[in-house]
Design goal:
The structure is a single chain. This protein is α+β, with helices and mostly antiparallel strands and 190 residues long. It has a single domain, classed as NADH Oxidase, CATH 3.40.109.10. The chain has helices at 7-13, 27-37, 56-68, 70-77, 83-95, 115-135, 150-157, and strands at 49-54, 101-108, 139-144, 162-171. The chain has a four-stranded antiparallel β-sheet with strand order 1-2-4-3, sandwiched between helices. Helix 2 crosses helix 6 (115-135). The radius of gyration is 17 Å and the shape is globular.
């Protein structure tokens, strides 16, 4: 796989990867990505993002929690997606595509700040992380937060006073995913 330095190409070719190979992701590369991702803009320059890198035993703990969350997610998909997609999604919840790394994203809880602003700032850094990982030849998949398991994730990491937003599965992969078509009519000029 060859990777471009052209930001337009990086954005257009990034995909959510749901199947990873067993090649280890070097800690130095993860640190380079994380230290660059945090150069995102943030509301009032609070820089309120926190990233927790899970590997090995902590990753196994998280996968167990994520797998349990499938019982809450599955009913929301039934009738909206094809049964084969639901089956594949359930499998992904069970093993996170064998990703060797999951990064959990948290936000400070800032009393005087609107929650949407705080969360939005963190998601700007997450987008940087996704694009940087792709540029470095890594695949990613954002793992949506399952509300019913958010406190359990915080407890696993012994975290208080922060809001758990999502996880990011990350690793090397063998297969490209096709690009879904973009929907028309999403930009309006007035």
């Amino acid at each position: 796989m060859s990777f471009s330095n052209d930001i337009y190409e990086i954005i257009k070719t990034r995909r959510s990867i749901r199947s990873f190979n067993d090649k280890e992701v070097p800690d130095e590369l993860l640190d380079k990505i994380l230290q660059t991702a945090i150069w995102a803009p943030s509301g009032k320059n609070f820089q309120n993002w926190y990233f927790y890198v899970l590997k090995d035993e902590k990753l196994k703990e998280f996968i167990k929690i994520y797998k349990e969350s499938w019982e809450y997610v599955k009913p929301t998909l039934e009738g909206k997606l094809k049964s084969k997609i639901i089956e594949l999604t359930g499998k992904f919840f069970g093993n996170i595509g064998n990703a060797p790394v999951v990064i959990l994203a948290f936000s400070d809880i800032i009393p005087e700040e609107e929650p949407i602003t705080s969360m939005g700032s963190v998601f700007l850094a997450i987008q940087n992380l996704l694009l940087l990982a792709h540029k470095e030849g890594l695949g990613t998949c954002v793992l949506g937060r399952v509300e019913q398991k958010a406190e359990q994730v915080k407890k696993m990491l012994n975290i208080e006073n922060k809001e758990f937003l999502c996880g990011i599965a990350l690793g090397f992969y063998n297969r490209e995913s096709p690009a879904p078509p973009r929907r028309e009519g999403r930009s309006h000029w007035l």
